[in-house]
Amino acid sequence: MEKFKEEVIKVLMGESEFTPDVLSPLILQTEEKLLVQQTKVSKAEAELKRPRRSVRKK
Fold first, then answer.
1. Structural domain boundaries of the chain?
2. One-character DSSP codes across 29-46
3. Helix, strand, or coil here: 7?
4. Which of 11, 35, 50, 58 has the greatest count of CB atoms below 10 A from its CB?
């Protein structure tokens, strides 16, 4: 994501060969992927915080 931010700055400064029309969809896709991964992490963290039931052997 940091690379995208750097490239957007270059676009704004007129120093990039990319146009905002090219970068915008790429940034959106990356943000969507990031959101999916953040959701997975949140679910995994919640699972780790749940108390586990101990299984007793007879």
1. 2-40
2. HHHHHHHHHHHHHHHHHH
3. helix
4. 11
